[in-house]
């Protein structure tokens, strides 16, 4: 039988633990004061995602070893580290970024054909808001959903899963650019409405592809973020039209496009009035057939050096096989991507498009756990 004495005794124990925890936290924040001075001397940024991931992985392993659910402890440590970053940023007087670029980089960027997209023009990372979701800078974002919207039930199930696992934006193709004219071409406007409703139901902004100028208006009406597919990266008329769409744009890299060509395409959208552009690396054509495309992971740091725009990675289209998506997602965040775009499906074997690269829900859950240190 429990008694009030027992509760008092446990509370006393808790008081001791809290006392020790507080002392430890004070010591931790004192160490943060020391590291912030050391890092400032080396011009290192306040936040280090890689280090945070390492710390959280260690904590997760320790909790699992003790047979304890790691989630609440991981969440607490995330908050502690957020406070550490805030402390460091405050001490730097909110001016953590360098005010000038290295001369060699400036010189190289001056010769480029893109100006608005260039880091030369905008030294700080740009942040793009998709409703309440902020992409870029220190934010890390997960976009998830099916390759194509196939039915109300399918998109609702995917939205529920995306929300439950902590994704930030729901994806779903409605106008599908298929290699064969005989393949499923998407549900069109009907699909857009289903996607919009699913997003509203679960409080997730939605992204979908726009393939042609005459679709821009209707896609912008029903979605929060407009996607330009790899095959349309150099459809300059479409890019011009997107400059006036009034919604942020995610621009996928063309199958054979260099990084500078990709940034020049971003420049088209920006020069025509829309500064809210997010870049998306989705694999390029190479000689190797082992994966659908070759994920150019090096594009992420290169883009981040040349441009202030957010850059995300689509490992699903790059790999074409679900087996590689988790590792490539981790790799994407490890090299500094601002987000990932993942294809999920309740029954990938029955998907009307891209089944082999779509994750079943339990595999998506495992992926979200694996990337959780970055989120
Ligand atoms: O290791 C660092 O660089 C720190 O600034 C410390 C710390 C932490 O709280 O442990 C804080 C912020 C960084 O994002 C990573 C880790």
Automatic annotation (TrEMBL):
Lipoprotein found in the keyword field: no
Biological process annotations from GO: aromatic amino acid family biosynthetic process; chorismate metabolic process
The keyword Transferase is annotated on this UniProt entry: yes
Pfam families reported in the protein's UniProt record: CM_2, DAHP_synth_1
Listed SMART domains: CM_2
GO molecular function annotations of the record: aldehyde-lyase activity; chorismate mutase activity; transferase activity
Stretches assigned to coiled coil: none
EC number in record: 5.4.99.5
First-tier enzyme category under EC: isomerase
Keywords: Transferase
Residue span(s) of domain Chorismate mutase: 1-92
Gene3D superfamilies per the UniProt record, alphabetical: Aldolase class I (3.20.20.70), Chorismate mutase (1.20.59.10)
PANTHER family: PHOSPHO-2-DEHYDRO-3-DEOXYHEPTONATE ALDOLASE
NCBIfam families named in the record: DAHP_synth_Bsub (TIGR01361), PRK08673.1 (NF006421), PRK12595.1 (NF009239)
Protein name according to UniProt: chorismate mutase
Source organism (scientific name): Pseudobacteriovorax antillogorgiicola
């Amino acid at each position: 039988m429990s008694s009030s004495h027992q509760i008092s005794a446990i509370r006393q124990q808790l008081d001791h633990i809290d006392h020790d925890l507080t002392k430890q936290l004070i010591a931790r924040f004192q160490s943060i004061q020391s590291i912030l001075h050391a890092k400032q001397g080396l011009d290192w940024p306040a936040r280090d995602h890689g280090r945070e991931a390492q710390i959280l992985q260690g904590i997760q392993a320790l909790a699992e070893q003790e047979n304890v659910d790691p989630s609440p402890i991981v969440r607490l440590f995330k908050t502690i580290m957020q406070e550490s970053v805030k402390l460091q940023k405050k001490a730097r007087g909110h001016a953590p970024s360098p005010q000038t670029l290295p001369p060699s980089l400036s010189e190289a960027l001056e010769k480029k054909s893109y100006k608005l997209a260039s880091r030369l023009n905008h030294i700080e990372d740009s942040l793009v808001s998709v409703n309440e979701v902020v992409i870029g800078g220190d934010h890390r974002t997960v976009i998830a959903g099916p390759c194509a919207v196939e039915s109300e039930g399918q998109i609702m199930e995917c939205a529920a899963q995306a929300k439950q696992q902590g994704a930030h934006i729901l994806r779903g193709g409605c106008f599908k650019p298929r290699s064969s004219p005989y393949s499923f071409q998407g549900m069109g406007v009907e699909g857009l409405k289903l996607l919009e409703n699913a997003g509203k139901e679960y409080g997730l902004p939605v992204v979908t592809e726009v393939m042609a100028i005459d679709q821009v208006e209707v896609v912008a009406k029903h979605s929060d973020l407009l996607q330009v597919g790899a095959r349309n990266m150099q459809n300059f008329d479409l890019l011009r039209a997107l400059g006036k769409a009034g919604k942020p744009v995610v621009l996928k890299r063309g199958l054979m496009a260099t990084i500078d060509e990709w940034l020049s395409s971003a420049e088209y959208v920006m020069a025509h009035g829309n500064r809210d552009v997010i870049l998306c690396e989705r694999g390029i054509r190479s000689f190797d057939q082992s994966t659908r495309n070759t994920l150019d992971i090096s594009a992420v740091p290169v883009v981040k050096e040349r441009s202030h725009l957010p850059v995300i990675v689509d490992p699903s289209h790059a790999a074409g096989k679900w087996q590689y998506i988790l590792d490539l997602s981790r790799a994407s965040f490890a090299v500094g991507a601002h987000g990932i775009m993942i294809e999920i499906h309740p029954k990938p074997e029955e998907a009307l498009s891209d089944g082999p690269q779509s994750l079943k829900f339990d595999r998506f859950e495992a992926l979200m756990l694996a990337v959780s240190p970055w989120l």
